[in-house]
Design a protein that fits this description.
Layout: E1 2-3, H1 16-21, H2 27-34, H3 52-75, E2 78-82, H4 85-93, E3 99-102, H5 107-113, E4 120-121, H6 127-138, H7 154-166, E5 171-174, H8 188-196, E6 200-212, E7 220-232, H9 245-267
Parallel strand pairs: 1-6, 2-7, 3-5, 3-6, 4-5
Antiparallel strand pairs: 6-7
Helix pairs in contact: 3-6, 7-8
Length: 302
């Protein structure tokens, strides 16, 4: 069971901290997430810091709030992981290095699961990315900053990302981030794998019951006491050292299909444990369907 979140209309104070507590949200995502109106039917305006010092203070305090809230949330959940041995295989074969890839919708639990590994994880250079960067550092990550666009530091961030992998760090990318479109990988992960020689490990997770935020990726937030299943692909995606543009496009499409395959199995596992003890045995239709993507709720005016 999934639900879009609409909080009670009487909530007026502390509207920013609840947005932080529910995960690595940007300020714009928080507006969609909270959907708060006062008694006059007007949307409550979220506080958005603009001064660099304000941003640093909010990011510092917010990262602690997120860290505490995520630990409390996932402490209540029943978590099952399948195929994680491929991570150890990659680290043994590549001197402790690995390169994971999944969809941006699952960033919340992904960040929690791979915490304290010192892993490199790409984030945005925007002001919203300041909060996400602080939160990732709180969980033990080394986040190079940059988005996919050339004007947003993407090339510089990719260079730093590749450098961190070559220095021996494990790494991961939300391949359709930071701004979508959803379930279509960018070429950055293919380029990183080609330059480092580290194969890509596709994975996905799902939770029942969960919330879906009204954002471009419909970010998943497990409800307390939910069931979470995470699935890793049995085989890593090998990328040649100098792929042609045609090869890169083929590898990108294959990566999309692999993540969608695992996502389908994860989404359809909860409630079928007796029939399929291992979610990797759940049959997937052909062609592989894209993940469920609830329609975005329209803005209400008052």
């Amino acid at each position: 069971m999934q639900a879009n979140i609409v909080l009670p209309t009487r909530i007026k104070l502390f509207v920013f901290i609840p947005a932080l507590v529910y995960g690595p949200l940007s300020f714009d995502m928080a507006k969609e997430f909270l959907m708060i109106k006062n008694e006059y039917g007007r949307r409550v305006k979220l506080y958005r810091p603009k001064h660099p010092l304000q941003i640093r203070i909010v990011s510092f305090l917010g990262s602690y709030a997120i860290w505490a809230a995520m630990h409390l949330l996932f402490l209540t959940c029943r978590i099952r992981v399948f195929g994680a041995e491929i991570l150890e295989d990659s680290k043994r074969a590549h001197s402790g290095r690995m390169l994971g890839a999944s969809w941006h919708r699952g960033l919340l639990f992904t960040v929690f699961y791979f915490r304290n590994l010192g892993a490199a994880l790409m984030t945005s250079r925007s002001k919203d990315g300041e909060l996400l960067t602080a939160m990732l550092k709180r969980f033990g990550y080394t986040p190079p900053r940059g988005s996919s666009g050339k004007d947003k530091g993407g090339k510089q961030a990719l260079e730093e990302f590749v450098g961190l992998i070559q220095a021996g760090k494990p790494a991961g990318i939300a391949t359709d981030g930071p701004n979508g479109p959803p379930y279509i990988s960018k070429f950055g992960v293919i380029a990183a794998a080609a330059r480092t020689g580290i194969p890509i490990i596709p994975f996905s997770w799902s939770a029942q019951p969960c919330f879906r935020i009204n954002s471009w990726d419909r970010t998943m937030i497990p409800k307390p006491f939910s069931r979470i299943v995470m699935i890793f692909d049995c085989h890593a995606l090998e990328v040649p050292a100098d792929p042609s543009q045609e090869q890169m496009e083929g590898l990108r499409r294959e990566l999309d299909d692999r993540i969608n395959y695992l996502t389908y199995q994860a989404d359809h596992y909860c409630g079928r444990e007796d029939q399929f003890p291992d979610p990797r045995n759940i049959p997937v239709p052909s062609p592989i369907p894209p993940p469920e993507h609830p329609a975005k709720k329209s803005r209400r005016t008052g």
